[in-house]
Design brief:
169 residues; mainly alpha; two-stranded antiparallel sheet; 7 helices; 2 strands
Length: 169
C-alpha cells in the first residue's frame, strides 16, 4: 500500500527508538492509571465480590504489555539480548524466543504501517497508536506527565528527551 497518511510526515521526524519509547510511555501510563484505580477505597461497597482482584489482574496484563514495549525499546536503542535477559532472569536465547513475535510485528509495521479493513475503505494502523501518531502521543504524554509527576520540572517531560530523526534540510 503506497498511499500516504497525514501521520507519515510526523512519524518521519522521529527515530524508531523514539517511537518505541513513546509506545513504552503510553503503556506505562496505562499501568499507572490502572494502579491508581486501586488506591481509593470509597467505592469498595460498589464493587462486587472479587472486583478488586479483577482490577489487580488487569494490571498484570497492562504490565506485560509495558514489558513487551520496554524490550522493543531496548532493542531499538541497541541493547543486546544478554543485557535484556539479565533483568528478566532468563537466558538470552529464552528472551529472544519470548519476544521474537513482538519484534517481528514491530518491524513489519514499519514496512506496512496500516492495512485496509474488510470494506477496503478504512485504514487500520498496524503499529501502536503512540508510534503511528507520535505528535498526538507527545501532546498527550507531556500533559499526563506534567499533571502527575510532581518533581519533574520540564514543560515537555516526555517529548524533550526523545531521539529525533535528522532533519532533511
Amino acid at each position: 500500500m503506497t498511499e500516504t497518511t497525514p501521520y507519515d510526515a510526523d512519524r518521519a521526524r522521529f527515530t524508531r527508538q523514539a517511537l518505541a519509547r513513546l509506545v513504552l510511555c503510553d503503556h506505562a501510563v496505562d499501568v499507572a492509571d490502572g494502579a491508581a484505580g486501586l488506591v481509593a477505597t470509597g467505592n469498595d461497597p460498589d464493587t462486587g465480590p472479587g472486583g478488586r482482584v479483577s482490577q489487580a489482574f488487569q494490571l498484570l496484563e497492562l504490565a506485560e504489555r509495558a514489558l513487551v514495549s520496554a524490550v522493543i525499546y531496548e532493542r531499538e536503542r541497541g541493547s543486546s539480548w544478554t543485557e535484556i535477559a539479565h533483568y528478566l532472569g532468563i537466558s538470552p536465547a529464552e528472551a529472544e524466543e519470548r519476544f521474537a513475535s513482538n519484534l517481528d510485528g514491530w518491524n513489519t509495521a514499519f514496512e506496512v504501517p496500516y492495512r485496509l479493513d474488510d470494506t477496503g475503505r478504512k485504514r487500520i494502523p498496524q503499529m501502536p497508536t503512540a508510534a503511528y501518531d507520535p505528535a498526538w502521543a507527545c501532546d498527550r504524554l507531556d500533559a499526563w506527565a506534567g499533571n502527575r509527576l510532581i518533581l519533574v520540572n520540564d514543560e515537555c517531560p516526555v517529548s524533550s528527551g526523545l531521539a529525533m530523526a535528522p532533519s532533511e534540510e
